[in-house]
Amino acid sequence: MNLRKRAASRESDSETLGRERQFHDQWALNTPLDDVPVLECFEGPVALENRFIVRQLGSLTGKKLLDVGVGLGESSVYFAKQGAEVTAVDLSPEMVDLTLRLGRRHGVEIKGVIAGGEDLRVDSNSYDFVYSANTLHHVPDRERFFQEIHRVLKPGGRFFTIDPLVYNPFIAVYRRMATEVRTIDEAPVSFRMLRLARKYFINVKHREFWITTLALFLKFYLIDGIHPNADRYWKRIYREPARSLWWWYPLRSLDTVLSRIPVLKALAWNMVIFGEKGAADL
Q1: Class of residue 69 by CB neighbours under 10 A (exposed 0-12, middle 13-18, buried 19+)
Q2: How do strand 85-90 and strand 64-68 relate by DSSP bridges?
Q3: Residue 201: partners with Cβ closer than 8 Å, 6 or more residues away
Q4: CB atoms within 10 A of CB 2
Q5: What pLDDT was estimated at residue 14?
Q6: Among 37, 54, 55, 178, fewest CB within 10 Å belongs to which?
Q7: For residue 220, what pLDDT is reported?
Q8: Among 26, 190, 4, 16, residue whose Cα is nearest residue 92
Q9: Contact between residue 164 and residue 238 where contact means Cβ atoms under 8 Å apart
Q10: pTM for this entry
Q11: Distance of alpha carbon 225 from the chain centroid
């Protein structure tokens, strides 16, 4: 890439990050602390991805965890309540502020850092775990994202990401409808992300979630009458009363089988990628 193209690319990325920052600042400012669930996002019946990740993490007591792209702060607070020493990183100053205030509401202290996923601004070789939910699909330079995660992890440290996949046509329609509750620059990930992750990490694996269980989105739209721009479906799922999910639980069981089938797993809504920094990598 010549110098002119590199300069244009940097300018484009800067504009993208500016739009992302502004959008997420406004979201944080419009979100009361009482509207942010914590336990539900990790222990509720629909918290499929996070329940899987929590089982992989094991005990967090005394562990250093970097939460990249903290959003409303649910993950940072949950991990801190489990005994981790948490650093919350987000491009949005208001999201970081919301996370710190939410932590104090729940009786835990969290360190906040305002930074993007491609420039984490924390010490190298410092963290036992890196967790990043719904962030990678907002990042312009995804290789740089993985490079930074590799840099900040201790040798033997592990990372976990959650992001939407690009393949499901139903989700593509939903995204075209939900134009006011997401940013124009975000782009779902593909299985190519696995090859990229394997450039920097060992033991890279992945799990897919939400295939037939996506019927919950149809319920919101067809039965509850909620337009995708009226509420963020991916947040609304955590407010669904457990007693009302009697019809959904069989689909959850079915998905545990379907998500193991190579062709069908591509139809999942979300993919969890996880891996390890080599013990000799410094």
Answers
A1: buried
A2: parallel
A3: 146, 150, 159, 275, 276, 277, 278
A4: 7
A5: 81
A6: 55
A7: 97
A8: 26
A9: no
A10: 0.94
A11: 27
How much is the CA Rg of the chain, to the nearest whole Å? 18
**Joined tokens for residue 202:** 């060992």
Per-residue pLDDT at 12:
63
Tokens (6 digits) for 275: 């891996």
CB of 87 closer than 8 Å to CB of 113: yes
48: alpha, beta or left, given left = phi > 0 and alpha = psi -120 to 50?
A: alpha
Q: 86-145, pLDDT tens digit by residue?
A: 999 999 999 999 999 999 999 999 999 999 999 999 999 999 999 999 999 999 999 999
pLDDT digits (tens, 9 = 90+) for 54-80: 999 999 999 999 999 999 999 999 999
